[in-house]
Amino acid sequence: MKSSARFRALFALVVIALSVYIAATVPVRLGLDLRGGTQIVLETRSTETIKADGEATERTLEVLRGRIDALGVAEPTIVRSGDNRIIVELPGVQDPRKAADVLGRTAQLSVHSVLGPGAESDKSLPKGERVLADEAGERLHLAAASLSGQDVKDAEATFDQQSGAGWLVTVDFEDDKGWAKLTGQAACNPAGDPKRRVAIVLDNKIISSPQVDPSVACGGGITGGSTQITGSFTSEDSKELALLISGGALPVPVETVEQRTVGPTLGAEAIESSAWAAALGTALTAMFIIVVYRLMGFLAIVALACYGVISYAALAGLGATLTLPGLAGFVLAIGMAVDANVLVFERAREEYGKRNRPSSRSALTAGFKGAFSAIADSNITTLIAAGLLFLLASGPVKGFGVTLAIGVLASMISALVITRVLAEFAVERRWVHRRPKLTGLASIGRVREYLTRRDPQLMRRPRRWLVVSLIVLIVTGAGIVVRGLNFGVEFTGGRLIEYSTTKTVDPDQARTVLADAGFPQAVVQSSGDNGLTVRTDELSNAEAVKVAEAIDEVGGGAEKVRDELIGPSLGDELRRNALIALGLALGAQLLYLAFRFRWMFGTAAVSTLAHDVVILTGIFAWLGKPIDGVFLAALLTVVGYSVNDSVVVFDRVRELWQKNPKAPLAQSTNLAVLQTVPRTVNTGIGVIFILASLALLGGDSLTDFALALLIGMLVGTYSSVLTASPLAIELDAYASDGSGRGRGRGRGRGRGRSDSGREKSGAEESSSLAKATSQGS
């Protein structure tokens, strides 16, 4: 065994062993859309005195962490996103009202002396004074704030076991002088007088207004930096009051810009349906690959299993959160891993047929060498799209970008290292060497045999294909203008709530009930057999309760399975970031392809990507499907996936040009298309199995995702062959004569040469290949 092969085997063994260890010991963290719970996105706001920068947001996060811990939620997550955004995930919390109420009390805590009973009108009060209702509803006239939340050190609910007085709240202050002065002034008033009280205000609401104990002397106040608030507190009341006092010292106010709630049933169904989709899609793909490539196909499936372990371990090891779109991306990456193996095996088949004394080992080595550049270029372009998703997107789409990037890297390790180690070991066995047909490499395949017999000249009239693509582009793009885009709540702002009802409810009936309840603008759609989706403008949690009551009444009982609240500012930001991500993805891929190939190939490939994006978006517009975060994930996946086909074709054109620099571009392109079609067909079938499984078994939440990818894959496969290639020919012809009148027929480099002395044409080379491997399967 050569040293390079020994190194690959050792590397593969280390990676697999490490992945198995991590997968067995480190669990993957599931997103809320898979395990159920509530996610709240808060945004810090600047005040007249404090700017909401990264430092202020970090201090705010620590205060909110204390509030969340006091809620008693298991395994909560709170992280900062950017300079002024905080993401809070509360697993298992299905009713976000309590959490939102606690987190939403975002004004700074303040402590006031009471000047007396409050009047009905407070318009003429001096600056800083206010009139607020106390816990019993009595209006109190408050002086300007004497202390703020920053003066509060801690607050704790305790049970007074010595006196048996029940639950009380102990409050500690940073400096005892302010509290002593405030309570000393209040103690100068007689017992029962409102002026003897001290008001603690949070979010413009009095949360406690205790009266100073009669034992406190006038002017002396409560010293020692600690005080106790007593009353008829229950355990929950005292803990909530302590939580609000200790957690009220926010450096800057915050605002809820997004809120999502997913029921556990939806999460469980999503995991189960996606698992079935993955199992079925992988099984069908495995059967197809084994039938086509025999022993090499079986070894590729073994490597594919290793790919799954590596991807899972990478997710767990990096601490990434697996979301529903991310899970779909994980399943989709299986098809991308198959693509790399198919590229290698098809090149090995070609090499086997070209050699006078062929062997499976030499053909396999040449196959890996010949396919490496196409695999690397196509996967790098996909990584560019995944990286932009991670940098510019948010929420589930960002998680999808992480999962897609991990899948791409794992697929390259699986195809270029693990598959190669297994395949080289197998072909070195004597019993395999004696039976070359067993390897699946000793034949050119039925698709290539058919193309050899027919020898179609697809690039003879490239402008015809461009006209067909233009017609399709106009028809589908008209949907964007005629029907418009149905932007999801993520991009428009508002609230979307999905319910599972006991009985089937007609959407029109539900719409009427909601209108009677005060929500005439609500958009109601059916979801599945007993599901209803209600979409409205921004609702408060109290208004959401009224909507739930109306649906519960008309549905004979209803369970909330999903609840999403997106602020209008966040919706604008998401839509803007989506366009930026798409534009940068196209621009970055153009630069990369122009660098790796020629400018006309890069321009043709990126123009084709824009063509695919418009067609996919237009079809969704005609179908009335939502344009949401999941669609964006699918769209950018199509951008990365569809360029793979173009890269494979252009990589072969580049190789043919290196062999025959004077050949016309149309001739080289036609031959490149015919030589790569078998790979396109076999990869496409494998991916169709995966996507069809997602569409049929993935549940309602994955149907639109799988549909977008199916459409994108079909359009991308067609356009990479019959749009990108003709466009490259026309661009080359335009650049060659400088007038743009070139027909692209035999034009390009070396145009105008006679046929005498030329190398073999595509038909002749294909015929030679067929004769050398007449035993095709």
Q: Can you walk through the features of this model?
A:
The chain is α+β, with helices and mostly antiparallel strands and 777 residues long. Helix 19 (599-623) packs antiparallel against helix 22. It is elongated.
Helices and strands in order:
Elements: H1 3-25, E1 29-30, H2 32-35, E2 37-44, H3 54-71, E3 77-80, E4 85-91, H4 96-104, E5 110-117, E6 130-133, E7 139-142, E8 147-148, E9 152-160, E10 166-173, H5 176-186, E11 198-202, E12 205-208, E13 226-233, H6 235-246, E14 254-262, H7 264-318, E15 321-322, H8 324-354, H9 360-392, H10 395-427, H11 430-433, H12 436-439, H13 446-454, H14 462-482, E16 486-487, H15 489-492, E17 494-501, H16 507-516, E18 523-526, E19 531-536, H17 541-554, E20 558-566, H18 568-596, H19 599-623, E21 626-627, H20 629-659, H21 665-697, H22 700-722, H23 724-737, H24 762-772
Parallel strand pairs: 1-15, 16-21
Antiparallel strand pairs: 2-4, 2-14, 3-4, 5-7, 5-8, 5-11, 6-7, 9-10, 10-13, 11-12, 14-20, 17-19, 17-20, 18-19
Helix pairs in contact: 1-7, 1-10, 3-6, 7-8, 7-10, 7-21, 8-9, 8-10, 8-21, 9-10, 9-18, 9-20, 10-20, 13-24, 14-19, 14-23, 16-17, 18-19, 18-20, 19-20, 19-22, 19-23, 20-21, 20-22, 21-22, 21-23
